[in-house]
Amino acid sequence: MSVKYVPVQWGRFKVIYDVIAITMIMGFLWIFVNVTPGILNHDPAINPQIRNMRAFGSCAFFLLTAILMIGPLARLDDRFLPLLYNRRHLGVLTGFVALSHASFVVRWYFVFSPTDRYEALLGTNTAYDQILGFPFEAFGIFALLCLLVLATTSHDFWLKFLTPRIWKDLHYLIYPAYAAVIAHIGLGALQSTENPTFGVIVFLCASLVIILHLAAARKEHRTADAGVSSEEYASWRKLFRADTVKEGFARVARLSNGERIAVFRHGNRLSAIANACAHQNGPLGEGRIADCIVTCPWHGFQYDVTTGQSPAPFTEKIATYNLRLRDGYVEVDESPNPYGTVVTPLAIPTPSMS
Amino acid sequence: MNLVILFVQVWGGIGAVVALVFLIFGISRIDEDARGALSFRPLLIPGILIIWPLVIWRWWQLTGTTTTSVTRSAPRESHAIVAVVLAVIVSATLFTTEAIRQEWPSHLAPIRLDQAQ
């Protein structure tokens, strides 16, 4: 099952998502520039160029905040998962908005400099040895560079080329980028404005991001702890009650080695496969199942959950896992079967039987 | 500061050469999904300009082979540590920037210096 790369992989839902995202961005910029100058009460007064610069800068900050909220929200509540699947498009848009902000800065504050504008940007303030008056532009440049790395490596090609491990590590740059943006705003805009509104909004956004991430990490930690190795066989791990898996869906569990598996329910039977798609590590556990076939939500690759194999004529295979039932709880053998191994589904008692 | 700009220019220049060679000759040999797919390649140029050393390293690693997907769960083991570090740094930054904030005497009317003399 080979899928040729295309510039942008748009499905119906992704098109709708992108249209909404772009509309909201343009709406925000229009409102900021045309409707709210009086409400924002910029103090000291600013000119249209600075207003444009602030509009794009604020927009980039809110977009970055939203992106950082999507991950933990999806882990805390499955209903946010559709946002997670489209987060990369939002990241690219954020890169463009941040670049526009930087462009306005360079083309206004440094355009009248007798030296090269970029030299002026880097050399105007060099007070790196003090906090008050620290060249906050440096934080902005660092954050912009991080966002550009993320945006320019968002295509599916990069995930496969760099390997998921390196790609994911690279995209952890979003965290230092956010910290740098906070420093950029705190040492820049918040130092000069008399109006406390934006400062309060920044504080609330940052607090929300922090709280959500800590809550998601806590939930992840507790979920991981929920699985415990059975005493009889070290390789068996207790997961969750069998009746907590919804028909047609999966519950994702984490093994002691950090790998994730997806336990699917089809009828009154359970089957477990690796959670990562063989194509580009898409989250199979978040896909729906029909006639024992799960469809990866990322690119539509399909697997029979009882064999770990793609339907003929395709040849992709993933690992399957053995399950057993103990006192109503599902247990999994942590040792994966060879890719494509047929496993008899685990029958679970129906409510009338139990 | 001239050195910083020169560094960026040299970095980008090398990146452009790497992008040209990689996208024309290299990519099809190491990724079967890229064979015959041309329209997406220009989108890779900005990324190669920025992380070309990483591109060369992976290209060298994959030469003579074809990329095969490695099934693996997304690595989120370090998320908890990142979340805590982010919380500490962002909180400290906001506290510090608020603490050093200075108020200017906005209640005083401005005076032209040439008239004051």
Folded structure, characterized:
The complex is a heterodimer of chains A (354) and B (117). Chain A has 354 residues and is α+β, with helices and mostly antiparallel strands. Chain A has helices spanning 12-35, 37-40, 48-76, 81-85, 87-109, 117-123, 137-152, 156-162, 164-171, 174-187, 189-192, 197-226, and strands spanning 228-229, 236-241, 250-254, 260-266, 269-274, 289-290, 293-295, 302-304, 320-321, 323-326, 329-333, 346-347. In chain A, strands 3, 4, 5, 9 and 12 form a five-stranded antiparallel β-sheet that branches. In chain A, strands 1-2-11-10 form a four-stranded antiparallel β-sheet, with no helix packed on it. A three-stranded antiparallel β-sheet of chain A has the order 6-7-8, with no helix packed on it. The radius of gyration of chain A is 25 Å and the shape is elongated. Chain B is mainly α and 117 residues long. Chain B has a domain at 2-62. Helix content of chain B is 62%, strand content 0%. Chains A and B meet through α6, α7, α8, α9 and α10 of A and α1, α2 and α3 of B.
Question: In one word, what is the shape of chain B?
Answer: elongated
The pLDDT mean of chain B sits at 85
Strand-pairing-aware structural class of chain B = mainly alpha
The whole-angstrom Rg of chain A is: 25 Å
**What order do the SSEs of chain B take from the amino end to the carboxyl end, as H and E?**
HHHH
Residues in β-strands, percent of chain A: 5-15%
How would you spell out the order of helices and strands of chain A?
Answer: HHHHHHHHHHHHEEEEEEEEEEEE
Mean pLDDT of chain A: 86
Give the number of DSSP strands of chain A. 12
Distance between the termini of chain A: 42 Å
Helix percentage of chain B: 55-70%
Q: Oligomeric form of this entry? A: heterodimer
What spatial form of chain A do the alpha-carbon principal axes imply? elongated
The low-confidence parts of chain A are none
Total count of helical runs of at least 4 residues of chain B: 4
Which stretches of chain B are poorly predicted, pLDDT < 50 over at least 5 residues?
66-71
Greatest contact pair?
Answer: A-B, 71 and 56 residues
